[in-house]
Amino acid sequence: MQPIADLDFGRYQRRGYAEAVFTEGKTVDQCAEIARLWRLKSEGVGVAELGHVLFTRADRARAEAVLSQLPGAQYYPEAQLVAWPGAVPEPVGGRVVVACAGTSDLPVAREAALTARYLGRDVIELVDVGVANLDRILKHRRLLEEAAAVVVVAGMEGALASVVAGLVRAPVIGVPTSVGYGASFGGVAALLSMLNACAPGVSVVNIDNGYGAGHLAAQISAPARKEPTND
Amino acid sequence: MQPIADLDFGRYQRRGYAEAVFTEGKTVDQCAEIARLWRLKSEGVGVAELGHVLFTRADRARAEAVLSQLPGAQYYPEAQLVAWPGAVPEPVGGRVVVACAGTSDLPVAREAALTARYLGRDVIELVDVGVANLDRILKHRRLLEEAAAVVVVAGMEGALASVVAGLVRAPVIGVPTSVGYGASFGGVAALLSMLNACAPGVSVVNIDNGYGAGHLAAQISAPARKEPTND
Amino acid sequence: MQPIADLDFGRYQRRGYAEAVFTEGKTVDQCAEIARLWRLKSEGVGVAELGHVLFTRADRARAEAVLSQLPGAQYYPEAQLVAWPGAVPEPVGGRVVVACAGTSDLPVAREAALTARYLGRDVIELVDVGVANLDRILKHRRLLEEAAAVVVVAGMEGALASVVAGLVRAPVIGVPTSVGYGASFGGVAALLSMLNACAPGVSVVNIDNGYGAGHLAAQISAPARKEPTND
Amino acid sequence: MQPIADLDFGRYQRRGYAEAVFTEGKTVDQCAEIARLWRLKSEGVGVAELGHVLFTRADRARAEAVLSQLPGAQYYPEAQLVAWPGAVPEPVGGRVVVACAGTSDLPVAREAALTARYLGRDVIELVDVGVANLDRILKHRRLLEEAAAVVVVAGMEGALASVVAGLVRAPVIGVPTSVGYGASFGGVAALLSMLNACAPGVSVVNIDNGYGAGHLAAQISAPARKEPTND
Amino acid sequence: MQPIADLDFGRYQRRGYAEAVFTEGKTVDQCAEIARLWRLKSEGVGVAELGHVLFTRADRARAEAVLSQLPGAQYYPEAQLVAWPGAVPEPVGGRVVVACAGTSDLPVAREAALTARYLGRDVIELVDVGVANLDRILKHRRLLEEAAAVVVVAGMEGALASVVAGLVRAPVIGVPTSVGYGASFGGVAALLSMLNACAPGVSVVNIDNGYGAGHLAAQISAPARKEPTND
Amino acid sequence: MQPIADLDFGRYQRRGYAEAVFTEGKTVDQCAEIARLWRLKSEGVGVAELGHVLFTRADRARAEAVLSQLPGAQYYPEAQLVAWPGAVPEPVGGRVVVACAGTSDLPVAREAALTARYLGRDVIELVDVGVANLDRILKHRRLLEEAAAVVVVAGMEGALASVVAGLVRAPVIGVPTSVGYGASFGGVAALLSMLNACAPGVSVVNIDNGYGAGHLAAQISAPARKEPTND
Amino acid sequence: MQPIADLDFGRYQRRGYAEAVFTEGKTVDQCAEIARLWRLKSEGVGVAELGHVLFTRADRARAEAVLSQLPGAQYYPEAQLVAWPGAVPEPVGGRVVVACAGTSDLPVAREAALTARYLGRDVIELVDVGVANLDRILKHRRLLEEAAAVVVVAGMEGALASVVAGLVRAPVIGVPTSVGYGASFGGVAALLSMLNACAPGVSVVNIDNGYGAGHLAAQISAPARKEPTND
Amino acid sequence: MQPIADLDFGRYQRRGYAEAVFTEGKTVDQCAEIARLWRLKSEGVGVAELGHVLFTRADRARAEAVLSQLPGAQYYPEAQLVAWPGAVPEPVGGRVVVACAGTSDLPVAREAALTARYLGRDVIELVDVGVANLDRILKHRRLLEEAAAVVVVAGMEGALASVVAGLVRAPVIGVPTSVGYGASFGGVAALLSMLNACAPGVSVVNIDNGYGAGHLAAQISAPARKEPTND
């Protein structure tokens, strides 16, 4: 096999969070090869040097290819996520709240929550709290107020991001989802809605990008940010 | 002058609401000519036969052209609306509530409210009740619950439509506005948001179409709908 | 199973119409679970407290999952709708007319008609009355004039909404459909057409959203709107 | 002045209709230079060899630049058209009907009508016959049925094209106009509507392209098409 | 079966060309039912009263459903067209040329050519004459010059329409196709290209709409247009 | 004057950061009125209760209207920002770095930096560090590594966000700007680029939304986030 | 079989590079027929007269159809390319570097590299050198500086094109790929990014168009460009 | 004045072509400041070290600001370009042909031609050679065949790029222009047309980006490309 990847093994040391592999456009063989390269490296430098590697958007075939090379990895089918090492680390830093507007948004929300957990955070998930009935989100108000970072996962019109941002001190990361039909245009309606949130404190990641949101939430709520010095 | 218009004088008899003239793409002379034709007709058949004619999107020059032919017309600069006859009719039917998300949305909201009033309804306006602070809309909850029709005017992410629809029995007419910048795309973000409202009971009119929303609200809250008979 | 939904059981009391479940993005298991939660609740508070629940966009597998938990529910394959309880209520209020431009628009039209019927209205359906031959719609003119609300379902260029609105007193709810090809862009052409209708009195719901249109038609034609009081 | 144009003097002989000059993106000096080149050529080969040249989208400054070089040219400010020679030729061939949906569409309709007249056709114009009141177009039904080509000029939702095509034997050329606001997107809504016309027999030119529509109508209704021979 | 269609049996008398049935969004049963209704009508009034009915976009299953009700119909799989009666009529009027840019555009070109033939015209097809090598189209120059109407079928950048229009007297009907990938956006690139053709004399139909183009070509090249009379 | 606004005076207490007023769509009189309401409130409850109010997108006329009601406010013309009280607070929390790709992006970058400063952070600005020459950003590598939050302001292709995110531990907030022309589509190219950043850790705000980015950066780098407790 | 193609056999003599056949929209039979026509021609005029023909986007079925008519052709499944004759020619001219941002972009990169090789160039491929870690591309800096042409293949945000162009003397051909999801819109984000590259020296081909990029790279790095003479 | 720019003085040494300053989004003062910085640097290291700096999109005010700091610079108003030093260098390398479809495209074509000249190439300009009359471009066939690089500048449907590419050996750089109206969408139609060119050998730069095209043409036709060595 010709070389197919040049993995960023140094990312954990450089940035604090390890490489993740987006498996969707890759063949099953390529996924296995990448997992193999990771295992070889970890055998050389040790797991602690590399951090938790995540394989995202992994259907069962791709997940099994990864697991064949990284025994002990954990596969979460609903979130289409493989994590290695499989054990969730002990949480440090602030708490992340992941609020999910509807049942159909759950796969993306779970991807966000699991990512933040594997990157070292405590996470609470709120399910089916969309604005069609405000009581569903307002009853969690105190929890939201205490969060260090809030991830809002919503499709359709994505109004939940604005509503939550109006309630909290913490930054809100909006994840528009492709849930919807017709003029939702595969998540564009929710994306535009979140980009135009009337309440400040909302930033947005790509449609269905639960991984990116979980990563950001982990960064935002990280402990022990050292003070900057002069350049 | 060659003929420039074939006015729908029969609309009030046929549909219950008179013709309206969208002045934006018309020259000042064309506006004056249309007003003249209306006056001539009304001198022939009588005002009661024709209903209240509205001239929408009328800047001062166009408004004055209309007023020169229809003395006694009323001009509302903020809403860019001319109504003739100028007197607001006595309201009948259910009450219309026009809820406006932000100060910048006021011109469109006023156009909606004035249209519904000239078409015969009682109207209450709620100003600056956007979702960045939910208390602003929730304190009007009883008023909203009792409305026969609710018009929600909002730009940016347009989330107010979903939130209001979740609270009320009456139909909600969403009017996306071009208020915003960047990825609001001149009102497209709010339009898509309202079309994808997660709460049923929202329908949408064109961006900035306060006139259309007021017209619909008047139709929805009209009194004395006669029972249908068999065909 | 972790919690997957927080159903809005209070919607019938709060808004007058029960919750509906959009099944398209949900797994078969999630549909069954939601149906089970609904049945449990209804066993607690009684069916009359909750109203008719609808499951929309239900293919056969999802429909059977719902029926397994809610025996006595009625499934309409053409409209992809499950209703529970299955019996259509006795109609009250004004009559709804659902006008369908072409044969291919029928599934959406049937969804609209059934929704309005389960929400308590008398509904008449007009089939294949597109504007390529005006006689087809004009022969129903009297029926249209007497309607309390008109739903127009059309794909392609969606011109029927403007034409019907020019004929009637009642509000017209336009439902653009994804029927068409090429530059119909999955219903966008019809959507834009209806949003720009030259005749006032048209509002629009999402592409293919028969449920939303039927819901709105039921609201608009509802009986016994109580008079508003002062705030 | 460096050379700025390479005019297609042979087009009248080759295609039967002369060159036209789109002035909008050209400077006043360039317009004058092009007119001068035309005059020089006509002095050489004679006017009859070249046909009627049209300068389209000419505001007053550009029109005067052309007139300074081509005395005897005729300027039509409403249609922003300059024609030279200025005299309209005697009509031959079938009759063209130009139907204009609203007063604001008149400039485009006049450009179409004048183009067809200068290319040698008899033209009848119908003004303000949009579908908000079907009687306005239906009262011209016989005229439409006898046309050799029909140009339909409409903005907003552009439904007139479908309605007219359903009535006539002749080809319909749809000209979407930029009349409208919000979700008309500068004429895109009308363009898409006409491209998706449910009645066959409609083809479409660019938004606001009255010139192109008039040209096509003249071609379609031309007399004396000679029979094809074998290749 | 509830009524599913209201066929336009009078179109041949009214417009000169019969109804066509777009089968793509219809079920196999609906196609059969429509064919049955047509046969019943033809048994009543006679085939000559109705003209040739076409069923477009018919895959094999839909085609067989039609053929089961209309024996003697002719099916053209490449063009996905069923015609009934199956015999092509004797051509009258001017000749139509259908020019096809590439091999992949053939299905659309064949649909256009067959439609024009069944509507009574003589048709010549030019295959694979795209502009990447101008000699391929220029060698047919005389044939093009003699055509009464030219249909240009092209995907990708659609430049052939402009090039052909620059050569001929006859109107050019551009049919953008969905052939291409990436930034062709399913035919949008070719559509926009043809709408912006720098040579006058091009009008455009919907992407892949071979039927519409063939219909228009037949109208344009029809014999015996009677002279208009005064209104 | 009718009521035009319902200011969110409680936001500083509720969320930790005061209300901001987007002045762009408001009249000069409305800006003055809102400033007057703020002053009145501050006279009642005291400035410390309300926090620093910002007026964004303020041209000179709007700024002067605000300053007339809030003497002592500070106006920054380049950033089109008015702050009141005018004195910048003593910074607390982590340091924010604002990296600006080109000179034309400076107004947005300054708005972001000033917002973060008024919300209490230490800010360092990097100017003209776009990727056309990587050395310009790489020479600030240590500064970037020590930041608590990084704001990247870039138009055109917006590549700087990905490049910076690959270097740092802190979250990156991308602000696409409308700098560019043609296929930048007013900032859409940069927006899409940032939403698709191949390096995790980038979230995005609306085009040209320097205020929103500064607000988020201040939230992310805030001191003393209290630990969440159980709900 | 009716004629289905008019192959451009003269292209190699006219332009220096042979015809290529885009197989994606063609049937298996059409692919075989085109291959047969090519073989027949080559038997007549000799292979050297025609150059290497390429069949692009060939899945296995289409490839086998070609191979059945052109024995000795070479099929590259990853790149979906068939070349005939199968032997790669001896390279002449400057060297081409193909830089590929991620593993998922490999099929497009391989298509570009193989095309340039069959058109006579030496090619070096760089794999997985995206900007999330700049070291991956910077370590190849000398190689890039010496290239005669650089092809950059990247999906997602496509930032690699700008970064590479900032480093090199040679022209950069950007190939946006459809790798990504959500707001990558099938490669549009990368396409816009590359079109707006802040570093001059980047031009762009269609999304996923590896063939076109390889062709251009071969043209740019061709040897022996003869000096122009006066016209 | 705070620092506003970090100029890339090393670009001429690194890439062979100097920095260019896009002035459009910059203030007059910023343009002057940048020119001043350039002059200071050139006084330090000498002009020969820096190459010709270009200021693009410079209206008269910005041009004068530059000229005030860089006396001896040359301003070309039609192309909105300032070059310093003002003298055009002696051409080396292959010849560049710039072909311009219409008179309105001249400013962009002139920008491309001047850029290539200041970067050291011989340039020939062809004016008004659009495809509406093929003879205009075909009469320059030999000139095109001998070019080392061809720049095609075209608005509207941009078909000229495909036609030219079919004729020549050299790479074609397409520059779509914003010339057109309606569905040209500010140059998008031409952009898409060129991206989908059916003839290989076309790559595309941003709409109206004459500078970028001239830069690429100079790179492609540069003399003395040194042979690559092994890495």
From TrEMBL, chains A, B, C, D, E, F, G, H:
One of the GO BP terms on file? 'de novo' IMP biosynthetic process
| Alphabetized GO MF terms | hydrolase activity
Highest taxon of the lineage:
Bacteria
One Pfam family of this protein, by short name? AIRC
Q: Which residues form the PurE domain?
A: 94-226
Family matches, as PANTHER family: PHOSPHORIBOSYLAMINOIMIDAZOLE CARBOXYLASE-RELATED, SLL1489 PROTEIN
Q: By what name is this protein known?
A: Nickel pincer cofactor biosynthesis protein LarB
The record lists the organism as Scrofimicrobium appendicitidis
